[in-house]
C-alpha cells in the first residue's frame, strides 16, 4: 500500500514538472509529449496505426519515425513523441487524438523515504 505522503509528493511535483516541460516547448524548442489516441481497429498493427496518426500531422512517415520516442499499447493507447510547438498543434487537430500532455520525469530528492531505502 502506498504511503499517503508519497501520493502528496507526486501531487506537489506533477504541476511543477508539467510547467517546466511546457516552458521548454514554448521557448521554441522541441519537447516530449504523451499522446493518447483512440484504440487501433481490430486487425490493424498498433504501431503502424499510431505512426500513421503522427505522419498525418507531421507531413510524412520519415518525420513521424524520427519524432516517435515510444509506443504504448498495453495499458493505454498512445505514444510519446518529440515535437515542436507547431507540430504539437498539428497533432492536436488529428481526429484520433484524445489528449496530449507534456512528458516529465520525476525523481525523489532522497533515496530514504519514511525509513525505506
In N-to-C order, the SSE pattern is HEHHEEHE
Radius of gyration: 17 Å
Q: Tell me roughly what share of residues is in helical segments.
A: 40-55%
The CATH architecture name of the domain at 27-102 reads 2-Layer Sandwich
Count of runs of 4 or more consecutive helical residues = 4
What is the class of the domain at 27-102 in the CATH system? Alpha Beta
Measured between the Cα atoms of the first and last residue, the distance is 16 Å
Low-confidence stretches: 1-26
Task: Count all strands and give the number.
Answer: 4
Shape: globular
Could you say what the CATH topology of the domain at 27-102 is called?
Alpha-Beta Plaits
Which quaternary structure do these chains form? single chain
User: Main beta sheet, described?
Assistant: 4 strands, antiparallel
Mean pLDDT: 80
CATH H-level name of the domain at 27-102... which superfamily?
Peptidase S8 propeptide/proteinase inhibitor I9
The helix/strand class is alpha+beta
Q: What fraction of residues sit in β-strands? A: 15-25%
Domain Inhibitor I9: 53-108
Signal peptide: 1-23
Organism: Panicum hallii var. hallii
InterPro entries: S8pro/Inhibitor_I9, S8pro/Inhibitor_I9_sf
Could you characterize what this model shows?
Residues 53-108 form the Inhibitor I9 domain. Residues 1-23 form the signal peptide. Keywords: Signal. This is Inhibitor I9 domain-containing protein. It contains 4 helices and 4 strands. With 117 residues, the protein is of the alpha+beta class. It has a domain at 27-102: 2-Layer Sandwich (Alpha-Beta Plaits), CATH 3.30.70.80. Helix 2 packs across helix 3 and helix 2 packs across helix 4. The chain starts with a helix and ends in a 15-residue tail after the last strand.
Amino acid at each position: 500500500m502506498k504511503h499517503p505522503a508519497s501520493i502528496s509528493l507526486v501531487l506537489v511535483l506533477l504541476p511543477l514538472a508539467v510547467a517546466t516541460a511546457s516552458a521548454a516547448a514554448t521557448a521554441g524548442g522541441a519537447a516530449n509529449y504523451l499522446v493518447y489516441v483512440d484504440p487501433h481497429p481490430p486487425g490493424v498493427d498498433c504501431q503502424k496505426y499510431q505512426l500513421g496518426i503522427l505522419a498525418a500531422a507531421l507531413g510524412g512517415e520519415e518525420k513521424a519515425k524520427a519524432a516517435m520516442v515510444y509506443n504504448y499499447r498495453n495499458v493505454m493507447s498512445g505514444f510519446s513523441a518529440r515535437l515542436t510547438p507547431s507540430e504539437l498543434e498539428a497533432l492536436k487537430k488529428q481526429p484520433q487524438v484524445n489528449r496530449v500532455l507534456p512528458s516529465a520525469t520525476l525523481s525523489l530528492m532522497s533515496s530514504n523515504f519514511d525509513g525505506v531505502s
